[in-house]
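Per reviewer request, we include the raw input and output of the structure prediction for the construct analysed in the revised manuscript.
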Amino acid sequence: MRSGRFEAKQVQVAGSTPPELMFVLGAISQYLGAALAFSLFDDLGVGMVAVLRVLGAAIILIVLRRSWKRSFNDLDMYWTAAFGIVLAGMNLCFYLAIEELPLGNAVAIEFIGPIAVAAAGRRSVRNLISLLIAALGVFLLAEVTPEGTVTGFLFALLAGTLWALYIILGSKVARTGAHLDGLGIGMLIGGLVISPASFDSFDRIMDSPILVLLALLTGLLANVIPYGIDQLVFRKISKSRFAFLQSLLPATAMCIGIIALGQRTSLGELFGISLIIFAIVIRRSEKES
């Protein structure tokens, strides 16, 4: 009963909050978590950090939601498992991509995924124009350079493909009875599936228990909060609009760098942020399909 009231309150809050604001809040949490995760790469290894991030998020959600009380029928395990595996794979591939590529290049390549989903949604001239404007804005923010390797490019491209599948499957899970319980159980399954990527780093976790705890906690910032928000937003808007609003993520990351870290930015980057905001205004003025 308590869980039901809590979920009803979440839906009520989500219904009264603009999805754009929810995306920004989720992006802030996600990039803070990413910054913490990046700092652990050298000590724990990319694969280990990715696995601990997903498993840590799963444990937090399952405990908070008491998901073990849900039946397999309620969780719709086929979609829940597929969603969790895609989500975990997306996290792992992006980490492997930024090991080989500058962050901007990886972001620009990965963004192909949501662009494809948005383009496949509402087919109208206004939607196409807003999509092209947003894509240009992301490209300017990404500061693409010729550095990097073919391996990094392929991992970024795979991460983008999985990002597209995450949007499609995430929308499916959000509209079934699984919802946030599906997110937690799905991430547990996904974390176990990608766990072989951490096998070569097992010797490191015995020497760094504090760092392991930090890696588990990255799951709260980088997965539980932003993906939990995604589940609420999925129930409110279409897949195509959700995919389109993903362009707010790199824009938010840039704003965090400017405001919180005092980072300098170029006119091109500021123009990129302006283009994304302009594109969202154009897209929002069109009725949801």
